[in-house]
Design goal:
The chain has 413 residues and is of the alpha+beta class. The chain is built from 11 helices and 19 strands.
């Protein structure tokens, strides 16, 4: 992920570029600029921010009628999610809330583009949610207050929905920016595939996810009756994200002993048969010890799998997951696993594929030898190892909520 190249962009009618830290009480009053936005029937709002807390409602930018209880147009962060809403004299015109989260303390750029019939929410240069509805400043009565980090109404003349964190820039455009233009104004730009996965997570349209790999994905034996990482992920998606995501299907087609060669040979029955929108592949633990699959062959196998996934209808989106490190004292024939993981990282970078890097997370936390209490036999993650992998995957896809049962789950030793 990196900053986009310079792209010709329209001049904003409001462009407040002043980094400031807000403490849940402070704000910036831009009411003198309300006249520049109140007549806009379409356009773009763009904000660069980072949070320092998780609060149910935090304002990034809000225009309101301070003499009314509920006339406002607001871009904010709600319990980590991006929210765009508008109300006129108590009538809710639209309210869009992402399921993907942005309260990780990192800098993000959010943007909302609105026309008469379409609202699109962007995060880090990629569209992540769209809806067939549109309501912008001109549709809200009596706007004469414009604030960063708070909303003002007649019940809260001193403000409400205060922000905690830093806001670097707030801009309003009198036209709808293209994706390329939004990316050019973003502090970083996510992979296109990451935006597509986020769109699926935020959509009301059911999607099928295939999670495939070897015995680790299979969750065979060593989970000791607990859920595997794929099963934890399924609970997070199909239950905790609420309706209509419970109509998504998460299908685990991992098979103990599998290599990249095995998945390529059985691609139709293990992947294509389920018409997936997202296909997660975690392989390498068996490849490293298999005759005839050196690093070059492994790399070529991953590329072939990615190509086959992208060729599926829908279209399908590949997602790579690196395996966990193993205890090489117990498993000396896996000593080269780090080289295979390095090849996976290179393939992900070359192919523009999202990578959930469990190997990097484990080695960063524990060094080259994973702790025994995360593994059943020095190689296969046990129930605690699978839970760690599930949390890593959920965080990587920005759907981690510490208040959820899956994300707050801990398993004692």
């Amino acid at each position: 992920m990196g900053r986009a190249a310079a792209v010709q962009t329209a001049t904003p009618v409001v462009d407040h570029q002043h980094e400031r830290t807000y403490d849940g009480k402070t704000f910036t009053d831009l009411s003198a600029r309300t006249v520049a936005v109140k007549t806009l029937s379409s356009g773009t709002i763009l904000v660069t921010f980072r949070t320092t807390s998780r609060t149910q409602a935090m304002t990034l930018l809000s225009a309101s009628d301070p003499a009314d209880t509920a006339s406002n147009i607001t871009v904010g962060v709600s319990a980590g999610a991006l929210q765009f809403s508008s109300r006129d004299r108590g009538v809710l015109r639209q309210n869009h809330l992402t399921r993907t989260m942005y309260d990780d303390g990192l800098w993000h750029t959010a943007a909302v583009t609105v026309t008469a019939g379409r609202t699109v929410v962007y995060a880090d240069g990629r569209p992540v949610h769209s809806a067939a509805s549109g309501s912008f400043f001109s549709q809200i009565s009596g706007l004469n207050s414009l604030n960063i980090a708070r909303n003002v109404d007649s019940d809260h003349p001193g403000g409400e929905w205060f922000f905690t964190g830093s806001i670097r820039r707030v801009a309003v455009y009198d036209r709808v920016l293209t994706e390329q233009q939004v990316a050019a104004q973003s502090v970083r730009v996510d992979l296109a595939d990451f935006g597509r996965i986020s769109t699926i997570l935020n959509s009301g349209t059911p999607a099928s996810w295939v999670v495939t790999g070897d015995s680790i994905t299979h969750g065979a034996l060593w989970t000791n009756g607990w859920r595997s990482y794929a099963e934890h992920f399924q609970e997070r998606i199909r239950w905790e994200l609420g309706k209509p995501k419970n109509s998504d299907f998460v299908l685990d087609t991992g098979v103990s002993g599998s290599t990249t060669n095995d998945l390529r040979a059985r691609f139709t029955e293990r992947v294509a048969a389920f018409s997936p929108r997202v296909v997660s592949v975690m392989l390498g633990t068996n490849d490293v010890a298999a005759a005839g699959i050196d690093v070059a062959a492994y790399r070529a196998g991953l590329v072939e799998l990615i190509t086959a996934i992208r060729a599926l209808p829908a279209p399908a989106i590949p997602l790579l997951q690196s395996p966990n490190p193993v205890n090489t004292a117990t498993w000396p024939n896996h000593a080269a696993l780090a080289e295979y993981v390095r090849a996976m990282r290179e393939v992900a970078d070359e192919q523009g594929v999202v990578l959930v890097d469990h190997f990097a997370r484990w080695t960063a936390d524990f060094g080259p030898t994973p702790p025994a209490d995360l593994l059943g036999d020095g190689l296969h993650p046990n129930e605690r190892g699978h839970l760690m992998m599930a949390h890593t995957m959920i965080r990587a896809l920005r759907v981690f909520d510490p208040a959820s049962r899956v994300c707050s789950l801990r398993i004692g030793t």
